[in-house]
Here is the input.
Amino acid sequence: MKKEKLKLFTPGSIGPVRLRNRSIRSAAFEGMCPDGIPSESLFNYHRSVAEGGIGMTTVAYVAVSNDGRSFAHQAWMRPEIVPNFKRLTDAVHRGGAKASVQIGHCGNMADSSATGERPLAPTGRVNIYGPTFPRAMNEDDMLRVAADFGRTVELARKSGFDAVEVHAGHGYLISQFLSPYTNRRKDRWGGSLENRARFMRLVLAGVRKAAKKDMAVIVKMNLRDGFRGGMELDEAVEVAGMIEECGADAIVPSGGFVSRAPMYVMRGEWPRRELVRHITSPFMKFGISVFSRFMIQNEPFREGYFLPDALSVRKAVKIPVIYVGGVLSLQKIEEILGMGFDFVAMARALIIEPDFISRLKNGRSLVSRCAECAPCNRCIATMYTGEAECMLGR
Ligand SMILES: Cc1cc2nc3c(=O)[nH]c(=O)nc-3n(C[C@H](O)[C@H](O)[C@H](O)COP(=O)(O)O)c2cc1C
Here is the structure.
């Protein structure tokens, strides 16, 4: 492939933000915020992705409040950590890339041993995959969490981020409201899709207002929850339209439910052995080694696995659509951009090789090293226990 003809290396815009090329490092939890504080490893990793040629890098999952965390080594946005993030975004900008931060609340997946609080959810049903015993949110809780999203955007601006990515997929709190599986409410926040989407609209209105005109608002959403009884594609297409109406600058269609169908997000094999090896809690070790083989399904991996569904969203909205899901080669990137997607986001290819984009540009690679193991998903296991080993080059 002649590189001057490659769409990948043409600039593109997401709202007010201009990217030097069409590549984005997808939000993939780094596990690099011990005690909720961004570490030197997080700084080094994102700096290397920026220097490695990416258009924009996304710092993964930063909770909007302490009770929105699913791990003790996960950050929640607060003034004390703004200087750490500012240093990171300065380095990303020096590397020629833009910086985005994924913001969210994990609802019923919150780890109360880390947060000291009972998890919140649309409905007070036990989450057997935690297991967690959440409390059903009242309207004051919803308004408080929506305000936390707005406050987080303001701190993201002070931290130098060019964009925020609202996590409305993967079974996190907004997705728990959208999904008929987790939202059994009988009031105006549950039932019809319009009602289930009301919380998302509330959050996005505040996020858009706080982002003003100078920051891009990106929303990651589900195409399907990935199990029977979850949200399906027909509703997802409507959700994409609502996200556009709320003033988002771009959509990332994804899929899966971390607490119910995690491998639907990433595909391939659930790294059970690796998890058992890394996890220190004897209770968790036992649970994962005995029960996860019955509870968590492997999903076949195919390059570009979300393409057919993501195309439905592409056709339904006018704003930029960022494709994510199993992109491991230059050929696939060009194919996807040729289908009308505006950007291509990648997680695993940039975990194993932070300079993957430069390698494609200078012809050192055509295919990610991740393709060699199909992928192994070891990175998923190591993020549970702290710093993801692959990102540290181990
Ligand atoms: C180790 C790891 C951690 C992830 N953490 C997140 C996360 O925090 N937020 C999110 O939206 N997606 C997360 N993902 C999903 C990725 O962003 C992406 O949607 C998915 O891996 C498919 O892209 P890929 O095939 O390029 O890896 C994670 C993926 C991996 C492998």
Remarks:
- The pocket of flavin mononucleotide is lined by residues 26-29, 60-61, 102, 167, 170, 220, 254, 265-266, 324-327, 346-349, 379-380, 383, 388 (CB under 6 Å).
- The mean pLDDT is 93.
- The first helix runs from residue 40 to 51.
- The chain has one domain: 3-392.
